[in-house]
Design a protein that fits this description.
The protein has 506 residues and is of the alpha/beta class. The chain folds into 2 domains: 108 residues, DNAb Helicase, Chain A; 297 residues, 3-Layer(aba) Sandwich (Rossmann fold), CATH 3.40.50.300. It has 21 helices and 11 strands. The C terminus is likely disordered.
Length: 506
């Protein structure tokens, strides 16, 4: 028995080990070269074939460098509205000095010979795109593994870069380094046409406040907007009114990141403003039967609104970016609201002191706005300089707390001001200022500066447009002209400051 066992063991040792294809030849990146050839051949055979794949494929989607160059040539011809065929592609490549790099005219001829029609070109293109995504995932993973072994790499930066790269792959829009003027002009004209079709002059995300929307044309995508005020002025009430108007009135997906109040508290305030029931009654639950009916009927519209609230405390800028990307990918959010900026953390970035940290946060918020193509409204606290100042208590840009970078990075800086907060109940003409709030636009990169009066309802903690009858109560002020609509227009000090400081005003 022992001899038999030894014999079997010897046979096992002598038996050759079968290696997999991967082990024999190494790993080969995902590719579909035969389909690449078929797609390029079809594009040179049928003139209308490109329209089916132009949104699917980019020059970088192809595995072979020669194929990338050929497809880029086809795109150039398309942009110039020139015919696309074997000869035009050959001539274009020749002009660019790339004909020999792709294999010469013979290789182009071979491509057209390998396909007969463009019947399945879209299906083939999607497979090519999938292989490209696989290669990109491999590349990103390899870079992440490499950087993870590097002890000098900050872990939060590593996470952010990995998520950003994966998000770009998921969206299918690898970041461009530049854009030509023809493309940009076309996009600008399309935007103008859309605004003209709407007819209300609002091209961005509407706030729901008539005069404010006239001034801004809606919150513009990619803009960072700072809303600052002293505690108790109604910052949260204002942005909640904006969030309600945007999501309920206009059905636009809205994201609110609340670092100060819980999501339940915010929802309760929204219910109060929507139902006109007192917060005290809702807290105690002491509602009459008709009030319960009022609550149920009014809340239905609110419950169906595309409003997303995140109340993570001490939210870092990295967490915010990750959450915002997911919300953009899943729900296509149109606006982001943050309450409030000073409660955020930089997640280990931004330097040693708080001012540098706030500076890093404001720059990052601007970056998020541009990356996702949405307006970002961030609330900010003001310093106590407002309280100590005599006379007019209206805030100024210099009152922004902790960092001048906030003023620099923001596309628009707005202040909230309610005279009755300072026991100022009448203006110099004897007009009542009770229930009046002002949105002071102190910086506007793309428009005029204005003081816009709004109605503030203290019991409901909400802002709304002033009735037309109250617009006439605002009198002429020194150096300011008040429009018939009630908004106060002030001349921009941008040029004055530029001359004085000899520095860029933005």
């Amino acid at each position: 028995m022992n001899r038999i066992g030894e014999k079997q063991t010897a046979n096992k040792k002598k038996r050759p080990v079968m290696l997999s294809m991967e082990e024999q030849h190494g790993k080969i990146p995902p590719q579909a070269v035969d389909l690449e050839e078929a797609v390029l051949g079809a594009l040179m055979l049928e003139k209308d074939a490109l329209t089916e794949v132009i949104d699917i494929l980019q020059p970088g989607s192809f595995y072979k460098d020669a194929h990338n160059r050929i497809y880029a040539s086809i795109q150039r011809l398309f942009q110039r509205s020139e015919p696309i065929d074997l000869l035009t592609v050959k001539n274009d490549l020749q002009k660019e000095g790339e004909l020999e790099m792709v294999g010469g005219a013979y290789y182009l001829t071979q491509l057209t010979n390998r396909t007969s029609s463009a019947a399945n070109i879209e299906y083939h293109s999607r497979i090519i795109s999938q292989k490209h995504i696989q290669r990109e995932l491999i590349r990103i993973s390899s870079e992440t593994i490499r950087d993870a072994y590097d002890e000098t790499t900050d872990v939060f930066t590593l996470l952010d870069n990995a998520e950003k790269n994966l998000f770009q792959v998921a969206e299918g829009n690898i970041k461009k380094n530049y854009a030509d003027m023809a493309t940009l002009i076309k996009e600008a004209k399309d935007q103008i046409k859309k605004a003209a079709e709407k007819g209300d002059g609002v091209s961005g995300v509407p706030s729901g406040f008539t005069e404010l929307d006239k001034l801004t044309s809606g919150w513009q995508p990619g803009d960072l907007l700072i809303l600052a005020a002293r505690p108790g002025m109604g910052k949260t009430a204002f942005v909640l009114s904006v969030a309600r108007n945007t999501s309920v009135q206009f059905s636009l997906p809205t994201a609110v990141f609340s670092l100060e109040m819980s999501s339940l508290q915010l929802v309760t305030r929204l219910i109060v403003s929507e139902t006109h029931l007192s917060a005290e009654k809702l807290k105690k639950g002491s509602l009459q039967s008709h009030e319960w009916e009022q609550l149920n009927s009014k809340v239905t519209q609110l419950s169906e609104a595309p409003l997303f609230i995140d109340d993570t405390p001490a939210l870092s800028i990295f967490e915010l970016r990750a959450k915002a990307r997911r919300l953009k990918a899943q729900h296509d959010i149109k606006i982001i609201i943050i309450d409030y900026l000073q409660l955020m953390t930089a997640g280990g970035e931004g330097g040693g002191n708080r001012e540098q940290e706030i500076s890093f946060i404001s720059r990052s918020l601007k970056s998020i706005a541009k990356e996702l193509g949405v307006p970002v409204i961030a609330l900010s606290q003001l310093s106590r300089a407002v309280e100590t100042r005599g006379g007019d208590k209206r805030p100024q840009l210099s009152d922004l707390r902790e960092s001048g970078a906030i003023e620099q990075d923001a596309d628009m800086v707005m202040f909230l001001y309610r005279p009755e907060y300072y026991k100022i109940n009448e203006d110099e003409n004897g007009n009542s200022l009770l229930g009046i709030g002002e949105v002071i636009v102190a910086k506007h990169r793309n428009g005029a500066l204005k003081n816009i009066p709004l109605r503030f309802i203290d019991t409901l903690a909400k802002f709304e447009d002033l009735p037309d009858s109250q617009f006439n109560t605002f009198a002429e002020k020194d150096g300011e002209s008040i429009a018939s609509s009630g908004s106060i227009t002030r001349s921009s000090k941008m040029n004055e400051e530029w001359d004085r400081n000899d520095d860029v005003p933005f």
